[in-house]
């Protein structure tokens, strides 16, 4: 495995340490490490929740970050668990039941994939498909929304670019990237139902990945553990699973 992939993992670890207000070494050592959530410099620019709760692992230690009033519960219920137990159904239900009275639920586990230049496997558009890179935010905004609900759109995180796929002049799919941190750009992708299973998702994600790498950032791609198609797209382009996260989100009204 190439050196630049390990370099990228170390960079990601430093960002996650800011996200979780912890030491980078917490991710390297076995155990469950619980910290008070804080808005620190260098964190990903997701909204900071007053009632926060999140957990992540890069394969060894599990780090939990939560608001001050939740520290006692987290310590009492999670600190003695093993890594896999934290993300198992029983613990997930326990955490979900805990945050539900506050109008939240536990999302995930999300599996995060990372790509670097040395492991990237570009994918050419299928026959009849044309890919256009768009950098103008206003132009990108014309494509985001209800047509592509699985794409990314965080008000706090700037959209950097989109790759629009057209099949016979009809818009068929879209991949976009948001700058969640200066060095980490997240990719979201969606393909309209009539055009799925044709390689369009791979082609658009490939185009966005290449752009991000050329601009010196680290592309990452998030999937649910159960989304086999999305995970296959990531793997086909050379992405490697790098960390797992769960987090509290607000229930939809």
Written description of the protein model:
With 253 residues, this protein is of the alpha+beta class. The chain has 2 domains: 3-113, no CATH class; 129-237, Aminopeptidase (3-Layer(aba) Sandwich). The chain has helices at 3-19, 71-78, 83-86, 89-99, 137-141, 200-214, 228-236, and strands at 32-36, 53-57, 62-66, 104-114, 129-134, 159-167, 170-179, 184-191, 218-224, 240-250. A 10-stranded mixed sheet has the order 1-3-2-10-4-9-8-7-6-5, sandwiched between helices. The chain is globular.
- Domain count: the total is 2
N- and C-termini, Cα separation: 46 Å
Number of alpha- plus pi-helical segments: 7
Low-pLDDT windows of residues: none
| Secondary structure: number of strands | 10
Order of helices and strands: HEEEHHHEEHEEEHEHE
Calculate Rg over CA atoms. Answer: 19 Å
Mean pLDDT: 92
Strand proportion, as a percent range, falls in 25-35%
Main beta-sheet strand count, sense and barrel state: 10 strands, mixed
Strand order of the largest sheet: 1-3-2-10-4-9-8-7-6-5
